[in-house]
Specification:
Length: 333
């Protein structure tokens, strides 16, 4: 399941000889801990740096007893972030507050925008060449925030900044599998757009599976708002953590494989993209072929049914608003 290929291309020479370093920022949290566990089990990871403002020494000590080759280090507090990020090939960011029942992801903006901006500033300083995987919500805004900070420091490379939307794809496969009584691991749904409510567009017409219109509408709604099911069930204790950790580990592993030279690895992800630019949207998720540089070929939307075109039209203004909120936050802060 995991990449074992040696890193021969795409990294600075020190990284080639020492293998991949992955840093997790927010490693003490609900997502951070199981994500770090899954990364510790990945043989492509040789160094795993765990950073948080609390708790990381304990998580690192615990994980370090697992007999896999990744060397785990724990870093706590602002003064140790440099050491955590330095020389990282990939920085995965699940830092920030999660939702409580009744909240939208955009409600998290006020708290998480500043957290993500500060992590971006640290990335500029300590690891400007790292590939950055942003999990912190609202992804539609935190990704542009991160990019704007890189831009104002002259180190933005659109091939290296990713919003992690893998959980939407994971959920889509699961929910379609349940409806069709088939193996979810064999079901691939192209989920495009953004990562919140109506901006999540599952293109069920591209699956090759036959659905009734009723099934399409119910599945679309469930994929768009699937996160709410977990928020509600956790009843104030947060949002998806375990499924997100799996999705985050899957995306990190896909990128590690691509950075190591493996071809044909495709994951949907929220990137700086031309796909919806004609409609004024600069960041958009579609299938992306990952490469030794990070973002390789960005796949187009493909053909949309009439119903999906309506969904697309509803998503565009919301995405523009979310992206603009991120851009103007950085301009003012
Ligand atoms: P959590 O509250 O359990 O953990 C967050 C961690 O971030 C805490 O350990 C906290 O100390 C840390 N943190 C806060 N400020 C920090 C800073 N400045 N630097 C480093 N670490 C910092 O939250 P959870 O459940 O792990 O969720 C994290 C984020 O991921 C939330 O914003 C949530 O909405 C988002 N999320 C994203 C998903 C996606 O599909 N992209 C899915 C599920 C959650």
């Amino acid at each position: 399941m995991y990449a074992t290929r040696m890193f021969t291309r795409g990294f600075a020479s020190s990284a080639v000889s020492r293998g991949a370093k992955v840093a997790v920022v927010g490693a003490g949290g609900g997502i951070g801990q199981p994500l770090s566990l899954l990364l510790k089990l990945n043989p492509a990871v040789e160094r795993l740096a765990l950073y948080d403002i609390v708790g990381t020494p304990g998580v690192a000590a615990d994980l370090s007893h697992i007999n896999t080759k990744a060397v785990v280090t724990g870093h706590k507090g602002q003064e140790q972030i440099g050491e955590a990020l330095k020389d990282s090939n990939i920085i995965v960011i699940p830092a920030g507050v999660p939702r409580k029942p009744g909240m939208t992801r955009q409600d998290l903006f006020n708290t998480n925008a500043g957290i993500v901006r500060d992590i971006a500033e640290a990335t500029v300083k300590y690891a400007p060449k790292a590939h950055v995987l942003i999990i912190s919500n609202p992804v539609n805004s935190t990704v542009p925030i991160f990019a704007e900070v890189l831009k104002r420091n002259g180190v933005f490379d659109p091939k290296r900044v990713f919003g992690v939307t893998t959980l939407d794809v994971v959920r889509a496969s699961t929910f379609v599998g349940q409806v069709k009584n088939s193996d979810p691991t064999k079901i691939n749904v192209h989920v495009v757009g953004g990562h919140s409510g109506v901006t999540i567009l599952p293109l069920l017409s591209q699956t090759g599976i036959k659905f009734t219109q009723e099934e399409i509408e119910a599945l679309t709604k469930r994929i768009q708002f699937g996160g709410d099911e977990v928020v509600k069930a956790k009843d104030g204790a947060g949002s998806a953590t375990l499924s997100m950790a799996q999705a985050g580990a899957r995306f990190t592993n896909s990128l590690l494989r691509a950075l190591g030279g493996e071809k044909g690895i495709v994951e949907p992800t929220f990137v700086y993209s031309d796909v919806a630019r004609k409609d004024g949207v600069e960041w958009f998720s579609t299938n992306v072929e990952l490469s030794t540089d990070g973002v390789g070929k960005i796949h187009p939307l493909g053909s949309l049914s009439d119903y999906e075109q309506t969904l697309y039209k509803a998503a565009v203004p919301e995405l523009i608003k979310n992206i603009e909120a991120g851009v103007s936050f950085v301009a003012k802060n």
